Amino acid sequence: MSDESAVEKTKQTYLLIIYSFSNSGQIHEQRVKTIPKWGKPMTNFNFGFLERGTFKSQKAFMKADGTTKIDTFRFETGTKPENVAISTGGSSTSPFGLSLFQDMNANNILDNGDAARGTIRATDDTSDVNDAAFESLNVILKQGVYFAQTKSFATRDISYTLFAERAKTGEANPLTSPEIPLGQISQDLQKTNRVNNSDTADNFAFTLDSSSSLDIDVRELGSKKGDVNIRVVQDLNGNGAVDKNEIVVKGTSTLNGSLDTIAGFKGAGDYILQVCQSSGNTRFGVNFNHSAV
After folding, report:
1. Contact predicate 135/191, CB 8 Å
2. Are 153 and 95 in contact (CB under 8 A)?
3. Could you give phi then psi for residue 150, rounded to 5 degrees?
4. d(CA 201, CA 261)
5. What is the pLDDT of residues 103-159, one digit of tens each?
6. Rounded Cα gap, residues 159 and 293, in angstroms
7. What backbone torsions phi and psi does residue 246 show, to the nearest 5 degrees?
8. Which of 52, 85, 105, 138 sits CB 3.0–4.6 Å from 201 for a disulfide?
């Protein structure tokens, strides 16, 4: 048996029709899916225009059937290059990936001519595909149409939510994805990383108990010019975004701007230290100095 596909154009949508030819020569028509005019079947969700400061979220589900699953989310950005934060959160620990593409030929379809603007990012920054339920991208995007794409390599069902928000360049990360999980901090801890226009923020997720206090300092390293700002946030309502009442404390910068500090941080709970690009390409070191109280 051989199969052919044809696309029948209507006024507002495209309809994918699969024609099956049986051994007797009889033609069987199967209408598979109505496709919005802005995409192909692979474009599952349309966020439309991302207004600055407007939080977007979409729940999605991938059914495990032995094949790789892909969901695609379309959105548009404004005239000024600005930071766009995208993350996923879910209950599954199945291998999961996130990537970002720009619609280079302005045909509103994700195809081979579109350029990658963000790579699949692992929460531990060590591999392209990881075992965590959270993935994130933080990148400065110029005006255009973009496609965020999630991919599952798992044999288990996955329920997840994709979050997206646009902010001014140089502002703090508006999302709370626990990109770099540190667990409970009960002793001194050091980390290094980098922020730039392709990765504008890092979220260090940590837990603190009631008998601990932290002095946190973030020092800019190397000779490349750049600047970072820091703050600690807490996602109290679990919606994946930093709401106004969830900023716990902001860092204090030294006069020359190379060191940002938070002193005497206390209180049992789950927190996120956000290290965010203010300008340039910056390599930095984070020190969590622990003491008992």
Report:
1. no
2. yes
3. -105, 150
4. 17
5. 998 888 888 888 888 755 433 333 333 334 468 899 999 999 999 988 887 677 888
6. 41
7. -105, 5
8. 138
For the sheet with 82-90, list strands across it.
Answer: 56-62, 158-167, 82-90, 135-141
User: Two tokens at 184?
Assistant: 């409970």
Distance between first and last Cα of the chain: 75
Query: Are β-strands 201-208 and 180-184 bridged in parallel, bridged antiparallel, or unpaired?
Result: parallel
Q: How far is CA 82 from CA 33, 34, 170, 199, 232, in A?
A: 35, 34, 8, 12, 22
Nearest in space to 99 (alpha carbons), one of 184, 20, 42: 42
Q: What are 28's two structure tokens?
A: 């069987």
Nearest in space to 150 (alpha carbons), one of 142, 160, 141, 140: 160
Token look-up 């495990």 returns 64
pLDDT value of residue 8: 33
- Is residue 192 classed as helix, strand or coil in its secondary structure? strand
Q: Evaluate whether 109 touches 43 at the Cβ level (below 8 Å).
A: yes
Q: Token pair of 271, please?
A: 């927190």
H/E element holding 150?
Answer: strand 145-152
Q: What is the mean pLDDT of the chain?
A: 79
Amino acid, single-letter form, for residue 48: G
Q: How crowded is residue 47: how many other Cβ atoms within 10 Å of its Cβ?
A: 17
User: Between the CA atoms of 156, 161, 167 and 171, what dihedral angle is there, to the nearest 10 degrees?
Assistant: -60
For residue 223, what pLDDT band results from cuts at 50, 70 and 90? low
Residue of 56, 36, 47 whose CA lies nearest to 75: 47
Q: What pLDDT, on the 0 to 100 scale, is given for residue 224?
A: 63
